[in-house]
Amino acid sequence: MAVALLAVLFFVYLIFAFRRQLLELWRLNRLCQKTLEKIPGPPSIPILGAAHLFKWNNQEIIVAVRLMTSDFSEQLENWGREHLLNNNSYYGLMKVWVGPVPLIFCGLHESIRPILESTTNISKPNQYDIISEWIGTGLLTSTNAKWHRRRKLLTPTFHFNILQGYHDVFVRQGEILADVVAKEEGFFDLFPYIKRCALDIICETAMGTSIHSQTGGNNEYVQAVQKLSAIIWDYERFPWLWLKPIWYLSGIGFEFNRLVNLTNDFTRKVIADRKRAMEEDGLIAGNGGDPKKEKLAFLDLLLRMQHESQLSDEDIREEVDTFMFEGHDTTSSGIGFTIWWLGQSPEAQIKVHEELDNLFGDSDRLPTPDDLKQMVYLEKCVKEALRLTPSVPLIARKLAEDVTIGETKLPEGLTVVVVPVTTARDPRYWERPEDFYPEHFDTEKVAARNPYSYIPFSAGPRNCIGQKFAVLEEKAVLSWIFRRYKVESEEPFPANRPLPEIILKPSNGFRVRLTKR
């Protein structure tokens, strides 16, 4: 009797707590049943949608229902090949019902372009709300007028000349990475080393603070950032955590709040200390020189423009934390996958070695900005790795207005998911779509290609503001690895299948063997 009463009370709580969302879902569900009827996709049944088709392996059953593991990743890939790449008559659209929730996936440039080039449909779906609780409503999570204002404000902080000021950080931390992995023998997982390198780079470039995580400084802030990323991913894939009683009774909600407070307080202290120091040196409110000619952290640039742009300290905290969140996992993924692909592509790796040897010979000198410009083939390898394994595997938008693609009208309120990896395998534009082939990025081939067939940094008004930063960082770090080592990957694709989490990651780490050259 008591159990039944608790069940009834819990059911009533669900209806009350989610009444607005349930009404919106009911409206959208009824509308989509008709308007999306002809769009191809896996078969669905009432209530469960396509969930009954999801593949689970034994490990998943033991640890509970893991939504994004190797089997499920492979299944999504197969659905994409069947319904996105092989169905041009529907402009690369695929419909998947996740329970009662309809999702539309866009896999070809014909369907991707109307979504990403829109200046109205720029809102992220509700699943981003958990990220906002950590980083606030900065450039990643804000929308409408606030997003437009912040984007306009922050664009100058990623000017190429300002990025050159970060060059010393990139090359210094890349050299440390090449030093610390020298002790490894045989096959080992390189990914933890790369993540620590990227975290050191982002802390120094974003906040002007050195945390020395590569050389043993595993401080509380570093641990908190890593734990928060893991909790956010758990929240995204385990819907029961969306229920506040379960979120807090499990202890996860309290731990999340503790970590958010810790990281936010750390950032606030850095901002206050740096602001005080800059005021004492007369570097705030336009008293300094041209920021394009100075070596300033991202935080310094925001403090310099604070007065005229009416930014509060909390506004600055949001953008610094956004830079931290977006900047370390994405570049870790990009660097790791480039090394992993080259480790299974001997011919391409030889060309990288030859290019670097022509630049540096036997010297162990630091790369200059001009050296990075001349690493043309290495940059092609970075881009090719991002084509096959984009750091951000899915780009989601919640439609603020109807969008018509071909003869299909996608209704306002629908969540649309752009799949960069599918358009990047479109055989109309890629000579060897399934292979790691850096020559895809020869100048004449790029010029002949539809720009929306390659979107690892998204596209349109909400594209990645830090894409030049990312490519420069990756080239600087990768140059150190391949100047010193020959790389061999233990598990090539598809054995080490990439997993589409918030950031794309390998299922078994980046296990490589490094041989000194």
What does this structure look like?
This is Cytochrome P450 4V2 (inferred by orthology to a human protein). It comes from Nippostrongylus brasiliensis (Rat hookworm). Its cofactor is heme. Heme binds at residue 464. InterPro entries: Cyt_P450, Cyt_P450_CS, Cyt_P450_E_grp-I, Cyt_P450_sf, Cytochrome_P450_Monoox. The chain has helices at 2-17, 19-35, 58-63, 70-85, 109-116, 129-135, 144-154, 160-164, 167-180, 191-207, 220-237, 244-249, 252-280, 298-304, 306-309, 313-342, 346-360, 369-374, 376-388, 420-423, 443-447, 467-484; strands at 93-98, 101-106, 188-189, 395-398, 403-405, 408-410, 415-418, 485-489, 498-500, 504-506, 511-516. Strand 1 and strand 2 form a beta hairpin. Helices cover 53% and strands 9% of the residues. It has 2 domains: 17-116 and 399-455, no CATH class; 125-392 and 463-517, Cytochrome P450 (Cytochrome p450). Helix 9 runs antiparallel to helix 10 (191-207). It has 22 helices and 11 strands. By secondary structure, it is α+β, with helices and mostly antiparallel strands. The strands form 4 sheets. Strands 1-2-7-4 form a 4-stranded mixed sheet. A 3-stranded antiparallel sheet has the order 3-11-8.
Number of helices: 22
Q: What is the assigned CATH homologous superfamily of the largest domain?
A: Cytochrome P450
Measured between the Cα atoms of the first and last residue, the distance is: 73 Å
**Could you estimate the helical fraction of the residues in percent?**
40-55%
CATH-level-2 architecture of the largest domain = Orthogonal Bundle
Radius of gyration: 24 Å
CATH level 1 name of the largest domain: Mainly Alpha
Shape: globular
Biggest β-sheet description: 4 strands, mixed
- In CATH, the topology of the largest domain is named Cytochrome p450
Pfam families: p450 (PF00067)
Family: Belongs to the cytochrome P450 family.
Keywords: Heme, Iron, Metal-binding, Monooxygenase, Oxidoreductase
Cofactor: heme
